[in-house]
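Example A, followed by Example B.
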Amino acid sequence: MAEEETDQPFTSELGPLVEEVRRFAAAVGEKAQQAGGRFREQNPEVYGHLATAGSELLAAFRAVVSGHERRWSAPGRAESEHIDLDGPSDN
């Protein structure tokens, strides 16, 4: 396999499209950062509340995932019950 093929996972036909998507994503990201910066400057209290709320949501999500992981990996976890969603077979 040529080195160029390993660096570019897309075919040559998709190369220009991929580059255009990268430029578009960079432009959108830059505009979002500018808007976020203006929002932060104009509404520091609101921005602080939103940042705190986001952190709390992330902490809640982590707690849920952590709880599920503990139950899934517990050595004596409850047996599962098979539920036949197709109904009885006619065979």
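Example B, a separate protein, is given below in the same form.
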Amino acid sequence: MARRTKIYEGKAKILYEGPEPGTIVQYFKDDATAFNAEKMAVIEGKGALNNRLSEYFMTGLNGIGVPTHFIKRLNMREQLVRQCEIIPLEVIVRNVAAGSICTRLGIEEGTPMPRPIVEYCYKDDALGDPLVTEEHIAAFGWASQQDMEDILALALRVNDFMSGVMLAVGIKLVDFKIEIGRVYEGDFQRLVVADEISPDSCRLWDIESGRKLDKDVFRRDLGDLADAYTEVARRLGVLPKGSTPMTKPTLIN
């Protein structure tokens, strides 16, 4: 097998040059991080689960006309995606109060939002991904006004899709974050949902019990992270329904 060229390595993924121009191979690691990588661990099987779950969500979004960078899953840990220029923003959609908004605004965790609230953070680990306004985004040229309108529309469509999918399997979509990329087609650009959508980037609570099924399990030492992610995958049909939680899950094709 030919040696691949690594483009970038982050906390949860490694990007390699793809087999064709304009493509990238995205490899999902087992590393788990929290608090801007102050807390770290290796959770065996986590990368394989996130690869499969992100495939599930991205394929669903493509199917309803929400463009993503996803092309296909290659194997247990890798997927082929379109190369795109990432806008340096984390786009956060909140349906229920949890995490930093509780600290910032003094809202009790679990409080329903009056409507989905969209926030933007500047992607910079050294700065702790600070919250920014549309005024900052425009002033520093990170995205145009048209881009922001398109990003808002994409984020809310992702929220509608994800909320419905999760509700159908007894899970509440509390919040999530996505990244947006620019894909160039000739002289035109198109915005697409990029990076990943997985329990690493969502808060997911069991509707009946309130049990957390996302990375807060790792952040707060609430149990086994692979067990929580396995439960999400099983409910969505990514894992066989009769399977038992395991540290190293076996995925179905």
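On Example B: Residues 244-253 have pLDDT under 50 and may be disordered.
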